[in-house]
Structure formats: C-alpha cells, structure tokens
Amino acid sequence: MSTPLCRLCGTELEVTFVDLGMSPPCESFLAADELDQGETFYPLHVRICSECLLVQLPAYIPAEEIFSDYAYFSSYSDSWVAHAGRFVEDAIARRGLDDSSFVVEVASNDGYLLQHTIAKGIRSLGIEPAANIAQVANDKGIPTVSRFLGEAVGKTVAQEHGPADLVVANNVFAHVPDIVDFAKGLRALVADDGVVSIEIPHLQRLIEGRLYDTIYHEHFSYLSLLTTQRVLAAAGLTVVDVQELTTHGGSLRTWSVPTERATAPSDDVARVLAAEERAGLHTVEGHQGFADVVAAVRDDLIEFLIDCRRKGAVVAGYGAPGKGNTLLNHCGIRSDLLSFTVDRNPHKHGHFLPGTHIPIRPPEALDEERPDYVLILPWNLREEIAAQLAPLKASGTQLVVPLPALEVLP
Ligand SMILES: [Zn+2]
C-alpha cells in the first residue's frame, strides 16, 4: 500500500500519532438480524505530517457515505441549542449585525443555530449536506440548501444569495476530508469585509485530557491553532482572534478574515500559540508519547475487566455513545467482558454495538441485573450519570470510568 499524503501540503505521511487498529464506523449500530453478517472495519491510524504538523486520519471512508443520511439532530440537545444562542448574541455584538446583514452557516443541521439569527431579523442561509436534515430545517422555515461545501459550491451559493457578512462553521471543519477545498468554500462565501467563525476540538486538550475516544473515522483532522492557521492561510483566510471553549472537552473558536484585509491578530492568538508551543505541538517530536498514554489506558481497562471476570464479578456498561465504540474496539472488549450496556435512547434498544456486538438494553436492565460494576462510557458526563445511578450505587453496584485514567468512583 502506498503511503497516504497530507491533505494540506501533500507530503507523505510517514509518522504515526496513534494507531488504534481496525474499527467499524462508530455510529453503525447493528440490528439482531445483522449479527450473522460480515462487518466492514477500517483503520484508525492517525498520522502527523512531518512538514506542516497537521494531525490527520486518512479518508478511509467516503464522506458521502457518512454524512448523506446522518441521523443527528442538533435541536435534540437543549444545552447545544443554548450554546448556539449565546454564540449568536456574541457574534451580533462583535460584528454589529442587523437586519441588513447576511449570515451563512455550514453544516447547519436542523437550524439549531440559525433559528436564533432569524429571530433577530437577520437574513440567514444554511448549507447542510444531509438531505433529510436540510428538509427538517426548511420545514421549520430556516432556508437551507443541501450541498457539500467546497470552493465551487461556495462560489455558486455566493452568486445566488450574495456574499455573507458572517460565515459560521461549528464542529464541521475537523470532519471534512478535503479540508483545504472546504476552507476555500468558506472564503468564497464570505464578503471581502466579512468574517468566518469556526469551532474545532482542540488537539492540545485531546492530548492533555487523554480524549482518545474522540478519534473516529468521521473526525479527519485533529487541529491546533497553528495547523488551523495553516489550513486557512491556504484558502486566503487569516485568523485574527481566538477563544477557548469548554465544549467537546476543550475547543477553539477562531475568527478569520480575508487575508488581504487582515489586521494584526489579537493577544489571545499569540497566547494560545505560545501555550501550544510549550505543550510540544510545534514539533513532530512533541506529539510523540500520546501512543504510550493510550496503550497504558487500554492495559489498565483490560486488566480490570479480566480481573472482574476471574472473580466472577459482572460488569455492565452505561451509555452507547459513538466514542465508546472507539474505546471498546481498540481494547478488544466484547460481551464476555462487558455483558451489556444500557442507553436512554429507545431507538438503540435491542441493537448491538458495532464491532464488539455488545447488546444495548434500556436503563431499567441495570436494576434487574444488579451488576457488580457499571463502566460509564460517556465518562465526560460522569457527575451527571453518577447522580442518576445513585440508587443503584447505594444498593452495592460500583461505578467505574475508563478515562482519563481507570477509576472506581468513591
Ligand atoms: Zn502537511
């Protein structure tokens, strides 16, 4: 097999960041009648470019396959809608947007964010690749076109609707395989005096927080501010400001403008870049070591589960998040070590986790089975879930989180 090439600069990707082996797509939950069929596994081998330092997963699965009928509806999460509302308030204040302005959001989902701009009387347009979700947005009165953004689509949309004063791309930038063409699409959409706002999970937080279960096939690029600047620069955009957010374990929100109009970047840009440099993110060598951390986390979890099995202790899971599947597949954990998991989403009940074939049951199953341990897979929500499981814990079941380090909760 030939060495994959960097999606930013074209250099051969010869350095590994972390190799998690083979995994099926993390949202491909199985029905009972699919268990006896074959299942496609793809590599989860994340590499770093020795030239531009972009940490990336080659596009093993075509994006069209992942996103064309993507089932996630942002409005299902109250906290996410509220986050979008605060963003809109901030953007309106920063940019002085009013009823003469035009806002475009890329990957606008069901209009969870644009409902806030429309409520302010601002002309708004969504671009959403999944046709079924774009239809939901249009039905709600949020104008949305169903397209994959690239430079050509950006130019077409700008011709039809006019240049945008604000282009928003939240939590999509890291999820597009051709990130440079996507960035050129953003440049094509934005007015010469407009601004582009992008939210990305921050690589520095992924490393520091050991968020290795946020590595999955749909997550193509693992970005620092430095590499984000480099990608945007290739598209004629310059980062002039940055904010650090707590979402997704730690994210960056960058504000960029067309390079020919760029002013000096804010002090926050210099501050975040300096912190990244201290964390080793400005050299290839500084990225080494993450693979060892991941291996240690895996060893601890498997050791714990095997020990439980030898003692005859039953371990069940809590939650069936996509990210749990990266962890379970990487660790090779199947139903012999984790009997079943539970989830509050009724659509998942009676289904099985991809790859590991662990059954998903309703939360009441924990009360029926009374396992000795419950492994909390969405471990970032440990406080909230521990509170929900307090009665179970009071009756003797112990709660365990796998990350950032294996811990039986006190
Ligand atoms: Zn590169």
UniProtKB/TrEMBL annotation:
Query: What keywords sit in the KW lines?
Result: Methyltransferase, Transferase
Question: Which Gene Ontology terms cover its molecular function?
Answer: methyltransferase activity
Some GO term, biological process aspect, for this entry: which one? methylation
InterPro entries the record matches? Methyltransf_Zn-bd_dom_put, Methyltransf_Zn-bd_dom_put_sf, MeTrfase_14, SAM-dependent_MTases_sf
**In this protein, which residues make up the domain named Methyltransferase putative zinc binding?**
6-67
Locate the C-methyltransferase domain: which residues? 247-404
User: What is the name listed in the Swiss-Prot or TrEMBL entry for this protein?
Assistant: SAM-dependent methyltransferase
Q: Which organism is it from?
A: Luteipulveratus mongoliensis
